Amino acid sequence: MGRDVALSACDFCQIFDRLPGNAAAYRGRRPILGMMLILLAFELPAFLFGLLMGSFLDVCISRLPEHKSVVKPRSHCPRCLAPIRWYDNVPLVSWVLLAAKCRNCKAAIPWRYPAVELATGLWFAFVAWLLALRLDVGLVRRYHSYPGQETAVWLGAAAILILGFLLIGLLVMDWQTHTLPDAFTLTGIAIGFFIVCVQAIFLPSGAYDIHLNPQNQMRLSSPGSFASQGDVFLTGPEHLVFGRLLAICAAAAIPWLIRALYKAMRRREGLGLGDVKLMAMIAAFLGFAPAMLAFFVGVMLAAVYGIMLLAGRRATNSSQIPLGTFLCIGGLVAALFAEPMIAWYRGFF
């Protein structure tokens, strides 16, 4: 499958570590106040936009598990069905001003609504912060290593934003309803793979090609490396696109096999197909290795949660836990920290 790191969402910012030394000196001479203003210019709009997306995500969380439209009818109180006025629908602010109660019937508004809005806003702001640090506003244009690099980095940032949006929504939906709607998982697979296909367009000529050398050994080239001997086995775009397709299938196959084995041994369902599609979605955005990291983190967290339930006698051996919720947490971790975590793990071998 190869080391699937070429312009992937989880490590898009790593590409700027290859900038020349004079670029680092340029960054070092920038005044601290100016850098703070640049970061704020990225983070604040991203946070506000994230709040708006979080408000829409709340609608998706409420309606998609029940197979309802997220467009019609307009937002309303689930108890009295009164339409929510625009000034009562301002993310975070309205919940505080209304004292977490419906203006008409005084029914309690769950804390989940502002929590999702805040989580989405913070996710968008954090990704914008990472992007601002790496882009350094105009630095890429001055010290670019190949045409299209800046576009590729923006695509990677967009992929992380979309993945975070989907994972936060699926996290809450699985926790509340034990369902992972296809509207998020299958759509996410399509979006993630589409972004990879677009990223492949901006790969420089010869980058990430797979060659067959005279000893019939496969070698992965990289930007700036010497030209390898032998014929090209896969071009860079082919390697990126086909490798991601294989990653999606492999990431989905692992939980599917576990599901099949559990059903064969226990004569009952263990994992749901939603978890299989969720793993495929994470792999579509991040690649195979980060998806496996997300799977490992999610399973470990689910095991700890299950042990706590058993210890507190709040569950039995046959009780179900929302594994998808923990896989989503693993996906969020992998989206931001897969590269250093995987590098640390490989250091043991």
List keywords for this structure.
mainly alpha; disordered N terminus
Structural summary, described in words:
This protein is mainly α and about 350 residues long. It has a domain at about 1-30 and about 135-210 and about 235-349. The protein contains 11 helices and 3 strands. The chain has helices at about 20-30, 30-65, 95, 110-135, 140, 150-175, 180-200, 235-265, 275-285, 290-310, 325-345, and strands at about 210, 220, 230-235. The chain has a 3-stranded antiparallel β-sheet with strand order 2-1-3. Strand 1 (about 210) and strand 2 (about 220) form a beta hairpin.
In short:
The N terminus is likely disordered. The two termini are 19 Å apart.
Please write out the topology.
Elements: H1 21-28, H2 32-63, H3 93-97, H4 112-135, H5 139-142, H6 149-177, H7 182-201, E1 210-212, E2 218-220, E3 231-234, H8 236-266, H9 273-286, H10 288-311, H11 323-346
Antiparallel strand pairs: 1-2, 1-3
Helix pairs in contact: 2-4, 2-6, 4-6, 6-7, 6-11, 7-8, 7-9, 8-9, 8-10, 9-10, 9-11, 10-11
